[in-house]
Design a protein that fits this description.
Blueprint (H helix, E strand, L loop, with lengths): L4 H27 L10 H56 L2 E9 L2 E4 L6 E5 L3 E8 L4 E5 L6 E5 L5 E6 L4 E6 L12 E7 L3
Length: 199
């Protein structure tokens, strides 16, 4: 039996009113923290737990990488600065404990003059820095020490002096001479390097 038009309209109105009411009810539940229970209550929790540690691990990895880089850079700078300071300090100590001795050695037939003296001796103390300016007045001559640890061989020509330095690290007496064969008299030319032991 067909329903009256008035009854049909009332049912339709009731259905339309029920939809917003249901939507409002679900919205209230969402705002109150209540939702419809899923078929597996543990699924959202597991999903949340599986995501959060990954994000945290990534953040920690990035932060640790930055810290490691910063720490490594700081270590390098610290090492360079420390080495520089140590090197500077060591060089100052060496310079302070080392005395420079300057000598002018002039060769001529057939002998050497040291600092204007006919006594051909170079006297220094162990660990002194010895600086020699060697020149010749007539023919080419050499300043030669064959004994270890010095082993020096310098040749000078008239008008062309040579300069050289060495550290007197070995005490003792060492002969220097001319080893050139331009003139037989050169064999007579000799002097002595005397290095006194440090106290």
């Amino acid at each position: 039996m067909p329903r009256p038009k008035a009854a049909t309209a009332a049912v339709a109105s009731a259905r339309v009113a029920a939809v917003p009411a249901r939507a409002a009810t679900e919205g209230d539940q969402a705002r109150d923290g209540r939702s419809k229970a899923p078929s597996d209550p543990a699924t959202p929790l597991l999903r949340l737990c599986s995501l959060r540690p990954v994000r945290l691990q990534m953040r920690l990895t990035i932060q640790e990488g930055r810290v490691a880089l910063t720490s490594s850079t700081a270590r390098r700078r610290f090492i360079f600065v420390t080495l520089g300071l140590v090197g500077s300090f060591a060089s100052r100590i060496l310079a302070a404990g080392q005395t420079r001795r300057d000598f002018t050695v002039v060769a001529r037939r057939y002998g050497y003059r040291v600092n204007g003296s006919d006594v051909a001796e170079i006297r220094v103390v162990q660990n002194d820095l010895v600086h020699v300016t060697f020149s010749t007045e007539d023919i080419p001559h050499s300043f030669t020490i064959e004994e270890a640890p010095y082993r020096i061989m310098k040749r000078a020509e008239p008008g062309s002096p040579v300069s050289f330095s060495f550290r007197a690290d070995q005490p003792g007496r060492f002969r220097f001479f001319c080893n050139l064969t331009i003139d037989e008299g050169c064999r007579q030319m000799q002097g002595t390097l005397i290095v006194a032991a440090a106290r």
